[in-house]
Amino acid sequence: MENIKEEYIRVGTTLYKIAQQPLANGTTVLRRIPWSFGTIRQDYGKNNTPPVKKYDGFCTVPSHTDYYKEIDGFYNLYEPIDHVPVEGDFSDIIKLMHHIFGEQFELGMDYIQLLYTQPTQKLPILLLVSEERNTGKTTFLNFLKAIFQDNVTFNTNEDFRSQFNADWAGKLLIVVDEVLLSRREDSERLKNLSTAQSYKMEAKGKDRQEVNFYAKFVLCSNNELFPVMIDPGETRYWVRKVQRLESDDTNFLQKLKEQIPAYLYYLQHRTLSTVKESRMWFNHALIRTEALERIIQCNRNHTELDLIELLRDIMEGQNVEKVSFIPQDLLPLFTYNGVKVELWQIRKVVKELWRLTPAPNALSYTTYQCDYSKFSRFSPINRVGRYYTVTKAFLETLNI
Q: How far apart are CA 71 and CA 59, in angstroms?
């Protein structure tokens, strides 16, 4: 015990002990534990107290190549990584990157390179999905942890929902294995955090404090259809479906760790394959995948799907390119088709999901009613109201 070097800091008026907390998986995580000067004197005696470094407050300034713990008298919450880049072999890391990112391998390399060389750059929410086991998703998360060390935190779904966030507000990566954030508020919080420049850090018994927020999210799930709520047109997600590993090498993670210095050396000298085209760097068209489309389709509002089908039926049956209506016009058409829909559900789709704007005044328009003759299911009728108009081109943009 006497040989263990203990470190203490005072930030503002609060004393902390810096300690490595053991975890169940055999690793440790760095903690700043509130301490007291009285306890130090009890442990060391009045005349043998260890030095206490003093800081005016906390800051968060990420860097992997030019790191400072103290910046203008403030304690940097971001932690240094101890890898020393050196030229060498990293073939197993290349295998992992090919497995995770497939045909988007170069984009995946850009993603890791940006994390390493530009840690303040916002990046898309990376979501790895697969219903199969033994796909390497968790190995990839552990690989990220091995690279960026104490700047990566593993959260549970409950951690993410908790109001107390002091243990992850200053991290580079927040990773969630087996994510299931299917509530609307979960999705909105995740999206807002992914683009936030600052965040209110809150700990139990402490006042909320605004800090710079640079964290990126990496999520894994065995649910390929509904791991999180993703709306049509959403540009903040990069979803990859990961295939099953062909072989199971129990020493693979250790091999990856040994090759990290060579990999970082390569990233320092590599030219990015992309240029910044959005606030999250990548042009969304580059990272849009079939796996993302599947999740979007499963998140679709059932009323929206029924409404799209009805409008397409009218356009095809009447050979028109657009349909005008007020929500009340559609209720008998749904009933005629045997579909039970409430008026508020139609309004929600039209106004909130499609964000259509009605005519500014009550005007005359042509809509459609049920036609019980054998010639057609629908027939035109003239009405007056503040109507909406949906075109065939608009329906095609919905990708359904």
A: 8
